[in-house]
Design goal:
- The chain has helices spanning about 10-25, 30-35, 45-55, 60-70, 80, 85-95.
- It contains 6 helices and no strands.
- It has one domain.
- This is DUF6471 domain-containing protein.
Length: about 100
């Protein structure tokens, strides 16, 4: 497993946003598809507000898990998200090895 301890919180947020957008695109799901019940934990969400929240990647674990379920992902690994790290994190990772 790659050593990911040097990755900053901001880099993880960017990677998580990229990962989620990729997962949504693969499943042909957009924010309007998951904003309304039953897709998103039974709580209606504004499409724009949901998109902004995902873009910031600053939410609690419950929101993240509800989002995974709404997208149709059974789970995610750290390595899957790490594939979407910004270029500068990947360069640092390669330089540290």
């Amino acid at each position: 497993m790659t050593d990911l301890r040097h990755v900053t919180e901001d880099q993880w947020r960017e990677a998580l946003f990229r990962f989620l957008r990729h997962a949504m695109a693969q499943r042909r799901v957009d924010y309007s598809d998951i904003a309304q019940p039953p897709s998103f934990a039974g709580e209606p969400k504004e499409r724009v507000a949901l998109g902004n929240k995902v873009r910031r990647s600053m939410y609690d674990p419950g929101f993240f898990l509800a989002l995974l379920a709404a997208i149709g992902l059974p789970g995610v690994t750290l390595e899957e998200v790490a594939q979407f790290l910004p270029k500068e994190a990947a360069e640092t990772k390669a330089g540290d090895s």
